[in-house]
């Protein structure tokens, strides 16, 4: 009912005592001021300005508006300044969620790029596997999710409707076999999964375990999963002690190496695709867009961002 322009006009009339002086202070014509006052009076349903020949004075209702104008207009000006700062990347906040094996390689590089280029933009980071991060994105609990999908599966795996999201592919991450150094296949150039059918296996996150079961089924065996942990440092420790073999993504291999473990390509090769995911509206927010660009640049050392 009451707009900011109308409040500014009432305040100017209160300060200057006439339509003409109010118009001059605001850069409007005198007829424009008269029209804005009439429109505001129509909206409020009462007289706001009493015309007295060449001079005017505010009615009681007009004085109420004038009294409230200062704090209201000050708050609006402050809001405009903050929005302008966000739009100009002089401020802003981005809530990033990413799966654990990206948090030691891809994510730190991206956060460093944002910090260097836009020091006033704040990026918070939480670890979460794809089902949780995509659900958080949908519910408004995060702004960008870094998620992955193994070959032959979609990113949401039926758990979320991807039509509501915007995805940017960051890289393809090869999945390798982790074997103890003294394993008979440790010096092979490539290893078929079926050659390890009789080994005890160490499984990771639910999606990773599902990928292992899918690959094993195609290779004609049901793996004996002896240990389960989502901590890849623990996975490599178990492998190095000869307690089993495991599937290890390249992102982990490069950041959490273990001298007691050898990692070998599979025959045939296996990969997972890594994506940055947001919503159509959020991708237009400057700080979110800058974070997406940083993730792409961080990933570009291995794969083109598309």
TrEMBL record:
The keyword Transcription applies. Keywords: DNA-binding, Transcription, Transcription regulation. GO terms for cellular component: protein-DNA complex. It comes from the Bacteria. GO terms for molecular function: DNA binding; DNA-binding transcription factor activity. Gene3D superfamilies: Periplasmic binding protein-like II, Winged helix-like DNA-binding domain superfamily/Winged helix DNA-binding domain. Residues 2-59 form the HTH lysR-type domain. The keyword DNA-binding applies. Signal peptide: none annotated. InterPro entries: LysR_HTH_N, LysR_subst-bd, WH-like_DNA-bd_sf, WH_DNA-bd_sf. Belongs to the LysR transcriptional regulatory family. This is LysR family transcriptional regulator. The lineage of its organism: Bacteria, Bacillati, Actinomycetota, Actinomycetes, Micrococcales.
